[in-house]
Structure formats: C-alpha cells, structure tokens
Amino acid sequence: MTGRHRNPRPSLGLVAGLVSVVLLAALAGWGGYRLLNSPSCGTRLSLSIAAAPEIAPAVRTAAGNWSGTPRGGTCVSVTVAEQEPADVAAAIAGQRGATLTGLGQANGKAQVPQIWIPDSSTWLQRVRVAGGDLVPAEAVSVAQSPVVLAMPQPIAAALGWPKTKLSWAALLQRMTTGAAMKTGIVEPGRDASGLSGLLALRTAAAAAGANAQEATVAALRALAVGRSTLRDDLLGRFPRAADPATVASSLSAAPLPEQAVITYNAAQPPVPLAGVFLDPAPSPLDYPFAVLPGNRSEVAAAAEQLQRALTGTAYSTALAQHNLRNADGTAGPGFTPLPGAPSGPLPGAAAADPALIQQTLSTWTAVTQPGRILAVMDVSGSMNTPVASAGNATREQVLVKAAAGGLSLFDDTWAVGLWIFSTKLDGNTPYKELVPIGPLVSQRNQLAAALGGIQATHGDTGLYDTVLAAYKTVQTNWDPGKINSVILMTDGQNDNPGGLTLDQLVTELQKVRCRWWRSASVPT
Asked: Per-residue pLDDT for 30 more than 60?
C-alpha cells in the first residue's frame, strides 16, 4: 500500500540552512558586534554620541552604515544616545562645578559623551561661558531646522498667511497692544528654539526707540504667561477643536522649530499649525557636530571621519524622514515643506553674542521668576560726583534713574523694599528704611515716590554694617516660593569709623547663615 508519509522532523540539512539564515539576519543587525569580532580588526574603537532626540535616528542609521566597514584594520563601534541638549549642557558645565542660567545642576542620568550633537550652536556658546575648553571652538553643522512662529492656521490666515510676510515688529505690536494674541514659549534657558525666538523678539523691541525697555518687558511678560518647561506641553496648548471659541481661547503663537510643526501636523490634529517664517529670520537650529576635547587622537580622527559620513543622499533622506533639512537648509528627498516655506538653501544667521545670550536669559529670569528683594542705595558724599558721559548728572541721579527703570521690570508678583545708606542716617545707624519689603501690587507708587526723593548726603560709607543688617532683614519672613535677595548699589568701599571690619562682617554673616539653616523649614 502506498501513501504520503510526513516526517515530523525536518532534515539536518534543512535545519542547518534555517539556522544559517537566522544567524545571518541577526548578525546583519549587530554591525558593531560583527565588526569588533572580525579577524580584520587590528584596532577596535568605540564612539559615544549624545544627539538631540529628533536627529538621533538619522545619525544612528548613518553611523551604522559607516561603521560597517573596517578602515585600515581599525573597526569602530558607534553608540548613539538620545539626550536632551539641556541635560548634556548641564553635565558638561558641571565638570567645572558651574551651572548655566536657566538650567541648574545636571540630573544623575546625563552623561558627557565623546561627541555631542545638540540642536543648536547656542548650547556651545553657553557652555563656553563656564569653560572655554569644555567644548570645541568650532563645530560643523549636520542638519538644520528653521525657527518659525507656530500659529493655528485660522489665526495665521487672518494675518495674511501664507502670502503676507509677517515681521517681528508687527508681532511685537500685536503682543503689546491688547490684540488678544495669546503667545507662549518653551523656557528659553532649556530650549534653543525658545531662546532663538526670544533673541529675535528682543532685537525687534530694541528698535522701539525711547520705548525699547517698556516694549521688551511687555513682550517678555506676554510670552511668560504661556510659557512651558517642555515642548510637548506647549504644543498641547494649541486648539484641540476647530470651533471659533476654542481657537480664540487657546494658544495663538509660539516660536518653535519647523521640524516640530511638521511632526505635529503629521498627526492630523483638528486644527493644523502654520509655520510662519518671520522677517528677519531668527537663528535656525543648526545641529553642530561637536567632538568634545580630551579624546585620544585616534578617537578624534575616527570622529572626524564619521562627521564627513553625515552627508550624501542616504543621510539627506534619513533627515527628511524625521522632518529635518540638510545643513544648508535645502530639503532632502521625501521632505514635505510647510506652506509658505522658502525654497532652496536658507540663509544662515550670524551666531548670537554669548554676552547677549547671557543678558537676555538674565532679563528673562528677572521678569518671569517672582522675587523678594531689598534694594539698598548708596547716598554717601561721593555720590555727588558728576558723570561726564551722562551730561554731568551726579552719580546719584544716574543711579536713581537706572533704579526707576529697573523697577518697571518687575511685575506685581514681586515684593520689593528700599533702603539708603551712608553714615549716621538714623542716629549712629548708617542705613535708613524708606519702604519696607512688601508686594509691588500695593506699594509700587510708594517706591517710585521714594526713589524720586533720594539725594546724596555728605556722609561717609557705612557699607559693612549695612550689608549685615540687610542680610538679616531679608532672612526675616523668608519666602521659599521666591528668589530672596539683596541688591546693594554703591560707588565706593567701606568708610565707617567704629563700624564692622571686613573680617567681622564675614564672621557675622556665617553665624547668621548657620542659625538660619538650622531653623529654616525649607530644604537645604
């Protein structure tokens, strides 16, 4: 009797063939393992890269292709980690015990890599403030994403988008004239696109002439109302329904990278975003390839070769798949530009001055983060000295004018007090309280009037006794929800016979600080 017989076990040859296929498929995905164990590898190197999350996949693909071939007997394994630029910047600065404005200390997970690809060269500029040798002097751009003004399309269309070119000056006017434009920003100390937009807006405000300071403060306060720590949180504030009431009550505009807007629209939200290209264009995100100092020469050489590999059609296509442009601003195969986006290469913007970046971030902090301060102003005899560059106004007059302008930077969430000091202003006491520390919402006019009445005396400078008294006063009723500080303005050194010496002042300050920390309810 004949019939079909099924063998429940495959032949040994078939098993061997299947195992070979499986192994080949696995090894094809284990490029680093395959290379480092190849007989042709005389030298083995490992490169660690920390890349901004949006560019990391494209870099990982290109690095995998590049490391697939030994070079002169050297095999390189490349690890690409997605890390937020703010976290890496804090870790690098932390090597010198420094912190960057708006960042604070690094978290425990952030690692300093051999190669860093943040989203913007402004991170390198900021880190150089902490240490000029912490990052390279130059870094080649390996991608680009212009910074645009993200707006719900109905709102943008009402402004003439995409045909009409919107300027920063026009935006500034709408933000500061009660035109009901709800603006927002990702914290510029942590987000490069937020910083780029803030720098551009500040430049526009500086052109406002005599009202430049008021325009700047008004713009910063308008942005601060809708600020977010995370980019995803900010994007979540755009309208989630297309009815006019929802659109009108949601976020109207925020500076964001083009890549984020394209990615947001790809999810087909109820109200797509327009990416408005403003004039003049803010600095784009330029994704610098930064080989950090301290690497061995062979590692640096391999890193240079890898950087050159981040070019060509394959890499350009990988960037386009993640909504990023090439380094010159051109779009790679498959890139879908936003309506109204310029075609062809995009002009690069000049790097911002590190001092301007620091000043802008400090102003942002002063305007947006509530504080509790005691302002202490010198009224000693030397403050009667004329200042030639100020039309021979006295030092006191120049100081009072600057202080009055500074007062306008603080909103009503601040608490401010005002003292003056010289010698023997109140009996033998060298200082005198003009306005106690209190909320600006109720004593702004009182402070302005007190400032206007300040005049220099003919006394000496009781600096050290005043510093100690001011320090003790601010510690009293300390507010853990605010920045508590003393701002002391003087033109001279301590000159107060019978008063504290410098050593005595330091000793007393240390005693006060230790007593306060033992009794304070805030965490150390």
From this structure: no
Backbone φ, ψ for residue 70 (5° rounding): -65, 145
pTM (predicted TM-score): 0.73
Per the document, the length of the chain is 524
Q: How far apart are CA 175 and CA 163, in angstroms?
A: 21
- Superfamily of chain region 370-519: von Willebrand factor, type A domain (3.40.50.410)
Quick one: which of 392, 348, 75, 408 has its CA closest to 220?
A: 408
Please identify which residue in the block is written with the tokens 């912490």. Answer: 134
> Which pairing describes strands 273-276 and 147-152: parallel, antiparallel, or unpaired?
antiparallel
Tell me whether domains 29-143+286-321 and 147-276 share a fold: yes
CA distances from 73 to 40, 297, 460 (A): 6, 16, 76
Q: Which fold has domain 29-143+286-321?
A: D-Maltodextrin-Binding Protein; domain 2 (3.40.190)
- How many CA atoms lie less than 13 Å away from 94 in the CB half-sphere? 16
The DSSP bridge pattern shows strands 415-426 and 371-378 to be parallel
Q: Where are the domains of the chain?
A: 29-143+286-321, 147-276, 370-519
DSSP per position, 224-262: HHTEESSHHHHHTTS-SS-SHHHHHHS--BEEEEHHHHH
User: Is 147-276 in CATH node 2.60.120?
Assistant: no
pLDDT in tens, 370-426: 789 999 999 999 999 999 988 899 999 999 988 887 787 777 888 999 999 999 998
- Assess contact for 226 and 255: CB atoms under 8 A: no
Per-residue pLDDT tens for 171-222? Answer: 887 777 765 688 899 999 999 999 999 998 888 887 766 677 777 777 787 7
Q: CB atoms < 10 A from the CB of 486, how many?
A: 18
How far is residue 512 CA from its own chain's centroid?
Answer: 35
- Across all residues in the chain, what is the average pLDDT? 84
Least Cα distance to 123 among 323, 352, 295, 333 occurs for 352
Of 17-26, 264-273, 356-365, 395-404, the range with the highest mean pLDDT is: 264-273
Average pLDDT over residues 290-311: 90
**Distances in whole angstroms, Cα of residue 194 to Cα of each of 161, 186, 255, 289, 329:** 22, 5, 6, 21, 20
